[in-house]
Specification:
alpha/beta; Rossmann fold; two-stranded antiparallel sheet; 25% strand; globular; binds S-adenosyl-L-homocysteine
Length: 227
């Protein structure tokens, strides 16, 4: 099902990752842990390698969002780096990720030392990623097939919540499941681009809010997909 990791992850890819890290630095990413996670994780293994493999591999380390199957995308490396940096993670913090997809962001969160809980609504993607992440050494996340609008109440509260799909509004369940002092990052908007909203929970009812620029995400859809 998957390509052999050690054989595929050759010097060529390591060199490409170093160049990607340089690009991310020029775009403003400073967090050393985030940069070394990106330098380490074999992003080229996260694609839907059953289709268009050579074309995709050529682009695996360009700073672009790319298809991962089931009509979904792997987020642009800059977006992954930016969101992870903005979470301001301390070692061992609990992070809830909405939209596991191929698991690249999940791997970055694990690599920077977070305790990760991640939800995916597409069953085929979920099944694939659940097998794939442990296969490449990132078996530490709790992965759940479900609807991210509802969060993951069974393991709440979370220090940080990261939404990796564009939402039409901020789901109330996510606000409830965030610890006081915790941060929620969510791309908001239903158009071509979304505004990255940063919220800090100051009390059960008060939130500090910042807008951190425009990004492009696939939509956060309601309910589980069923396949
Ligand atoms: N974190 C991924 C991003 C994948 S794209 C990465 O590292 O590349 C966003 C993902 O969110 C898709 O896989 C999509 O199926 C999923 N998604 C969309 N709506 C969702 C919802 N309501 N609950 C959970 N996942 C959702």
């Amino acid at each position: 099902m998957f390509y052999n990791v050690s054989k595929e992850d050759e010097y060529l890819f390591q060199g490409k990752r170093k160049r990607l890290v340089e690009i991310l630095k020029t775009k403003g990413i400073k967090n050393e842990k985030v940069l070394s996670a990106i330098e380490k994780i074999p992003r080229h293994l996260f694609f839907d390698t059953t289709t268009a493999r050579p074309a995709l591999l050529d682009h695996a380390y360009s700073d672009k969002a790319l298809p991962i199957g089931a009509g979904q995308t792997i987020s642009q490396p800059y977006t992954v780096a930016f969101q992870t940096e903005q979470l301001d993670l301390k070692p061992g913090e609990k992070v809830l990720e909405i939209g596991t997809g191929c698991g690249y962001q999940t791997a970055v969160l694990l690599e920077v030392g977070a305790k990760v809980y991640s939800i995916e609504r597409q069953k085929t993607l979920f099944d694939k990623t659940k097998l794939f992440l442990p296969y490449i050494g990132y078996g530490g996340a709790k992965l759940v097939y479900g609807d991210g609008y509802k969060g993951m109440p069974q393991f709440a509260p979370y220090d940080k919540i990261i939404v990796t799909a564009g939402a039409p509004y901020i789901p109330n369940d996510l606000l409830i499941q965030l610890k006081i002092g915790g941060i929620l990052l969510i791309p908001l908007g239903e158009g071509e681009t979304q505004e990255m909203v940063w919220l800090k929970k100051m009390s059960e009812t008060n939130f500090d809010k910042k807008i951190l620029g425009n990004f492009k995400f696939v939509p956060l859809l309601q309910n589980k997909s069923g396949n």
